[in-house]
Protein 1
Amino acid sequence: MSKITELFGAMVFNDTVMQARLPRDIYKALKKTMSQGTHLELDIANVVANAMKDWAVEKGATHFTHWFHPMTGSTAEKHDSFISPKGNGQIIMEFSGKELVRGEPDASSFPSGGLRTTFEARGYTVWDTTSYAFIKDDTLCIPTAFCSYSGEALDKKTPLLRSMEALNKQAMRILKLFGNTSARRVVSQIGPEQEYFLIDKEMFLKRLDLVCTGRTLLGARPPKGQELEDHYFGCIKPRVSAFMKELDEELWKLGVCAKTKHNEVAPAQHELAPIYGTANIATDHNQLTMEIMKSVADKHGLACMLHEKPFAGVNGSGKHNNWSITTDTGVNLLNPGHTPHEDAQFLLFLVAVIKAVDEYQDLIRVSAASAGNDHRLGANEAPPAIVSMFLGDELTGILEAIETGSDYLNKEEHQMQIGVTALPHFPKDTTDRNRTSPFAFTGNKFEFRMLGSMFSTADPNIILNTSVAEILRQFADELEKAQDFKSDLASLIKKTFHEHKRIIFNGNNYSGEWVIEAKKRGLSNLQTTVDALPEFISPKSVALFSQHQVFTGSEVHSRYEILLEAYCKTIHIEADTMADIVKGSVIPACIGYQNELAKLLAKKKACGSEYDTSLEGYLLSRISALASSLLKKLTVLENALLESRDKTETLAHARFYRDRVFAAMSELRFVADELETLVGNEHWPLPTYAQMLYSVV
Ligand code: ADP
Ligand code: MG
């Protein structure tokens, strides 16, 4: 066995460890709970907990924690040690079944969007048995779902699991109609590609904006950005390479299948992609990946930045959510088949996704909405805010031929009579990629590309799974009543494509013409988070989530409130930080430099007229003028911040932040960035873009 195969999963209480350490009947009972969601009896949980504790203690663990995904977007943990007094002044290490399956953290300080007031602050964490426990930082981490006393979800895992269940239920109905008797479950699988930036930690710490907000709020454009396109897939620098190696190892130990790593488009930007897995586990793993990226970077004297737009003017970071649906027998339902029967089933699932994305395009947009991601979407580096789908010419051609009942002309110019039960073998050309599409079919999966790098993959998959579940429900309702299955199936596929083909766009999503064309097609263009979020609480959205028991009406409303509040708070913190930097660093730098210029000017003048003073004179007058403008813009920003306190209704508040506070920040930045180009380097208090972007050698 090579070293890596031994390393992989070394810190995970996985199936191999369970088999080795649990009595056979206990192992079987636990497996049943994992695969069928059956209740885990306390006596069984006790044995599992004890085995887990013994294993963890052998690996050096001293504590355990219920590890969960609150609505903050990151993960939460509260460590309890295994120690328990023996009564004789000594202790033993203990971990009970009750402690394993259920926790009661004080939930009052997590966002709940009004679901839980502080006087009923108790929240519950419940073990998600399908995601293995693992050891991180000498602590046994139990992946858990987090809900309120009355059972409302306060986290991202609970609704994700519910949405997976909804999809399973409806997809199984469809599979039964196709005569499938072997599959017992359908699961959504995801492979999230994660982009990030790495800069030198010392530079990072000198920038209050990066420390407090994750992005640079000021900074003149560097002389070299990404124009030469020399970073993408470029040779990886030794320091970055050392970081990536350690990152891979740390992730492998935690059972995360880190697979691909490369340099990305912007200088200092990189990407990591894992091998895809079941949506809830892959979501846990993506959270772990983001966390471990930061801690490993720190060890290497680097700062890992996951913000969607750390630097203006160069590409920001996204997360591509590759999504497919698979049976427990290993059949990918989005894989075009080899037989007419498989083809028809594939086409039905395909048009279900097309219909889901068209009908619920606004919700899909909501799933990619945040203050950070507003800097990317529509900014010619990421998909626009308009949701559309790329199918590629071949597949679109096939669906069009089905729609019109015409012959399909394939590449070799062969006429081919096709119907839903006879699909020509079209090339699954993975190089035929449309990188500008928000939602692209890539051979046997869809790649949803609108997500921001900091996002949890839970949110888009909750929305995707539930929307597709709803369309499959409609299809199953219709087909279960069919008199003639084959012909009804054929008309359903035809009709669905006909009604929803407006969502398909294979062209350049970055072009201005697409914006006009999309409008003609009646597609939404929700440009900012503030435009998008109200769609989350539309009657249609609430009906969708309640029907599939993914969210209750009050859960949807609470999430809406949390997202809007997060938007307001983010911009508020950014504005405050910016004002601090301008007052504390930029203004003093301008004064210092002007002082020097003024002294020199005075000296030269004192020497008589023999010295030319045009340079000092020009700089002094330009900087003075800009400095006064800076002060004015700063005052506008500070007044806007004061005014923001008067707003009580969240949506109005969010609009105010977008239209007034954010706008004031842009104006202030414009002046400050020009000052940066005039004030001498020695006087400028902040590392420049060029220094940061090329800080890692
Ligand atoms: P690219 O950058 O060209 O889009 P990558 O190889 O970087 O592709 O990433 C593709 C991602 O898609 C990987 O995480 C991979 O595991 C995942 N993936 C591949 N097949 C599937 C599938 N059937 N379902 C979900 N994700 C998949
Ligand atoms: Mg990709």
Note: Residues 411-417 have pLDDT under 50 and may be disordered.
Protein 2
Amino acid sequence: MSAYKINTFNSLLSIDNTSAGDLLEFEANDPTYEIVCLVEEGEPSELYLADMNYAAAKLMGIAQDMAVGRSFFELWPLDESRVLVANKLLHCLEHGETLCFQVHTGLPDGRHAMDISLIPLLSSCVGRRRILMLARDIAEQRRQCRQLDSLERVYRTAVDNTPDTIVRYDRNCRRIYANRSFIRMCRRPISELLGKTPLEYPGGPSMNKYQRAIQTCLRRGEAVEVELRWRNSNDSEHCSLVRLTPEHSEQGEIASVLAVGRDITNVEYLRKQVHHLSNFDTLSGLPNRDQFYYRLHEMITIAGARVALIMLDLDRFRVINDSLGHSIGDVLLHDISGRLLEYINDDGFVARLGGDEFAILVMDNDNNSKMLKESVQGLMALLAQPFQIDEHELRISVSMGIALYPDDGSSVNELIKFADSALHHVKECGRNGFGFYDRGLTIGLTERMLLEGELHKAVQRTELELYYQPKIDRLRNRVIGCEALLRWHNPRRGLLTPDNFISIAEETGIILELGEWVLRTACAAAVLWNHNKMEPFKVAVNLSARQFVGHDLLGSVQRILAETCCRPEWIELEITESLLLDDRSETRKTLDELHALGFTIAIDDFGTAYSALNYFSRFPIDVLKIDRSFVQGVEQDSQREKLLRGIVALAHCLEIGLVAEGVETQCQADYLCSIGCHIGQGYLFARPMPALDLEFSLAHDQLVLS
Ligand code: C2E
Ligand code: CA
Ligand code: CA
């Protein structure tokens, strides 16, 4: 007698095959049926169990081999399902029909919901009619459904209530989903949003860029981030940072793009405000000193143009201020600014450096000193004409010093220094005039060459030392870390601070070797100072932009970590804004990798570069170090104060840490605390000091204030 093998989850059941037919074969091969049981007719209205699998025996609470021949009704659980199942079985027997239905029944291990199928076996070798009963416990399935439902609810609540916008685009860049936040932001019904491309709605100039980004994401299958400015139906402007992520179909093809956007309108507003305050002088509307530095740098290093730098100073401006009052003085400065703007061409540049000092940059394309001279004479004449302010007719004179790039100097600092010394010379010679820089005016160059030669040997001769300046958390009244600052014990000139040699080191490339030495020394110190520390005591190290290009910075950092057993979380890397403004992919990659290793990345001298501050989304930045010029100006200058508040708000908005440097007075420290910046570094707390001194001060709690 051959038998059908019925695969069930738990067991194999053999049944007589003579009568089963196709139907049985089909059903029996369905492995989702767990309970299989063969029921046979007996006395009128009586049904016996002919065979069953393990799961069925378990349901009925009996051993498998004890069940055969017992009454079905005797064994089926005694609850309301028993009558139902009995009726269905009798019906099936009588009419020879296949039946499917659901019951709830109590099992020893609780109530279960079951899908039951009754299949009549039309004839049987035993001469009595039989029914194959297949039952499946669907409780688990229902539980899973419920779980899925509740999971779905959780996600839906999150998606519906997140302030972020979530939108899905299909392969044709058409919107196929939008969450509530997006709909709210657009102020349009959803029907008008779906099916549209970004260009169709909301449209506007930046949507071209956005749509291209979506297409790139679809094509390359890589996530991208874009910053967008757009207007909603009420015409209010929004700025969003959107992350586009490709979504794949089951076949693994890119089917759509999910766009998750964060409204950064606030951040953008603060960014603009900080940018304006940090780059323009409010009185004259002219660019300020910081922007001037940046522009000069840009003109000579990036454009490589021939430039004349003119430093201009009003003669005896104090007299006007003192005799006619500051408000007249202010108007005069404003009007002078107007004339200076009139003087420069489109390719020139004028900035107010502060007080009555201005700087002018003019292109010297023809390299013709006679023309330049005439042009400056023209400027003198223009400014010599009287200014009418209220009832006063004011006449002024100015002194100007001029330095030429590249003839006189090749760096920003040199040019400024040389133009300044030319200006000084003019003043000493009686003011009201101008003069060109003459080499005789400074003796700087030879000294510079000497230093350069000595610097080459300084590392090997161990003339270098790191000083450390503590950083104080004023909320917790604790020293939380320090900054490593380089010192050079020059045998000829004594102890030198970096201002005297870092630029030489950068120009000559010595900075690479120097930088490695600094990092190695600082890492070794960090290992010592973090011994047995719960919280990392971070040592900040200054990195020069030169170290990032054409040099395997990451490799040397990793080597130093391995050599010193230093952990990245003990080190903070201070970089300057100008490095980020360059935006080389090499720099970005290195910074990302350093950040991924666990280093903290801080922007040094924050606020001094002429920057649009839009690098925050592209670079991994943890901390802003507010430049000391802002901190120190704050007591006298309301513009600086506004700017400081702007920077603090920006940092909070971006969830970036803040450190104020150059804190010299209690008043500055208190003010900083009051606007939300409690970490400070500066002479008020401590000057930079040798490692041993710092250890001593830390051990004796000398650095915390009352
Ligand atoms: P920085 O990174 O802005 O460092 C802070 C400078 O401000 C230090 O000058 C410090 O002595 C000074 N300072 C600290 N507190 C106060 C204060 O309350 N008032 C005032 N007026 N100044 C304060 P330092 O040590 O002369 O360093 C000058 C610059 O040299 C540094 O400016 C940094 O840009 C650079 N530098 C220092 N060490 C290194 C280094 O190892 N590598 C590189 N690449 N650059 C370095
Ligand atoms: Ca620094
Ligand atoms: Ca700094």
Note: The chain has a mean pLDDT of 85.
